[in-house]
Amino acid sequence: MAAFWQQRGRRQEHGGLGGLIDGLGSVFDVLLANARLVLGVSGAAVLAIATLAVKRLIDRATSPRDEGDPKAEQKTLEETWQDLALIKTTPKSPKKQKREDLSEPLLSPARPLVPDPRACSASVGAPRVKSSPLRCLTLQEKLLSHHSSRLAVPEIQVSLVPQLARSISTQLQNFLRSKCPELPFGRLFLSGALLDGLEVLAADHIHLMLPVVLDTGLWSLIPGEDTVVRNPQYWMIKRVDLGYFPRGCSPWDRFMVGRYLSSNVLNETLHKMLVASINWPAIGGLLGCVIHPVVASRELKLEVKHDQVELSITLLPVVEMEDKVLLAVPPEGLVENLWLESFYRAEVSKVKELDAGDSGARQRCLRILNGVCRSHPTLHKLGGSPVTHVILHLSDSGSDWAEESLADRFQQVLEELVAYLEKGVLPSYFNPKINLFSGLLEEEIDEMGFVLYRAMSEPELLLE
């Protein structure tokens, strides 16, 4: 009975599995027949190997084995592992290329296919450092970097230039007192952006102010717009009460032309003293430098050469009356009696006062713009007073001048400058009747406007 059930079981086993195997065999045959068309050559090869392994597994599972052979089961397992290993080690078919991969650049055919063993060992031994992507600086960051790294004046100039200028001022003051004791000159003093913390790039020039002390009972101011020049930027200094105080009562009467104190005559007298009367080689030897008066200039100018610095000093006679600061800088032409009104002291004082009130960045913006104008051959006449007055006008409009808004204010100043240049008029902050562009030629205004108009879209160009 046992033999009967065993034989029956074997027939049932062979009968059921035989039909299944035959069905799977026909399916595999169909797949193999069409695999080359569907999967290609490499895909068909992979499928054939996998099919062969699976068929061998099924054949071993269904084929009768000798019950007395103890190595039969072990042999079957070893062959199964080999077949499974055959399936795992079968090379995978190449992945189908995606559409987005088509845009990737192809490898150069000259690139070596075999990797460099040194590179491989280095990559295995050392951890791979992830490179951080390059970050583009904003205009705000560029302005701050430009201000801190490119506009600074060398320390040797900051310390040595004022020292030299004061020493020369002392020598000049002593000469004037001994040569012209009858002229009540005031005490010489230095003026300029370096002393006010607004100098940029280099401290190679400074102003030496020579006060001309007038008796207010003998002299009065006449606005330039009330004279033949019709220019509110200039003033005339008129001698008064000649009937009661005749000519010669004032020590300055010797510099009069008509009834007016002539800035031109005063400058010519001082120019002769600077060129011919002062022993500059001796003074230069005492101070450890070489001093040359500029003979051909209309200005009262000294050129100073030191081992460490070169300096230009401009002597400016100045009259302070009725809250006005007037400089002996007459315009070119036949008019000799005009004195130029200066707003420099008021400009600097106002800018610092506004910055102190709201912790603003006006002085920083002004230094950047002055540096741009000074280094650009087309814009050099915009530096200083014109740019300062634009900043002061903007301050009245309620703009935010905090340091975080420096880039916005910088661009706004450029836009305002372009607008003023288009009109050809920049009104003075302290006297709207004065046009600060009056001394510019039309061609200069056009060139400046063109440069700044281009910079409105790319302000970084001005920082290069």
CATH arch. level architecture of the domain at 155-341:
2-Layer Sandwich
CATH class of the domain at 155-341: Alpha Beta
Beta strand %: 5-15%
Note poorly predicted spans.
1-18, 70-78, 80-115, 117-127
Shape: elongated
Helix coverage percent? 40-55%
> Structural class per helix/strand content?
alpha+beta
Cα-to-Cα separation, first versus last residue: 106 Å
Integer-rounded radius of gyration: 47 Å
Helical segment tally? 12
At the fold tier of CATH, the topology name of the domain at 155-341 is Beta Polymerase, domain 2
Query: Order of SSEs, N→C?
Result: HHHHHEEEEEEHHEEEEEHHHHH
For the report, how would you describe the main beta sheet?
Answer: 9 strands, mixed
- Number of extended strands: 11
Summed over residues and divided by their number, the pLDDT gives a mean of 81
Domain Mab-21-like HhH/H2TH-like: 362-448
Protein name: Mitochondrial dynamics protein MID49
InterPro entries: Mab-21_HhH/H2TH-like, MAB21L/cGLR, MID49/MID51, MID51-like_C
Region (Disordered): 85-108
Please specify the SSE layout and strand pairing:
Layout: H1 2-62, H2 71-88, H3 117-125, H4 139-149, H5 155-179, E1 189-191, E2 205-211, E3 219-223, E4 234-239, E5 256-257, E6 260-261, H6 263-277, H7 280-287, E7 290-293, E8 300-305, E9 310-321, E10 324-327, E11 338-341, H8 344-358, H9 362-375, H10 385-396, H11 406-423, H12 442-457
Parallel strand pairs: 2-9
Antiparallel strand pairs: 1-2, 3-4, 4-11, 5-6, 7-8, 8-9, 9-10, 10-11
Helix pairs in contact: 1-2, 8-10, 10-11, 11-12
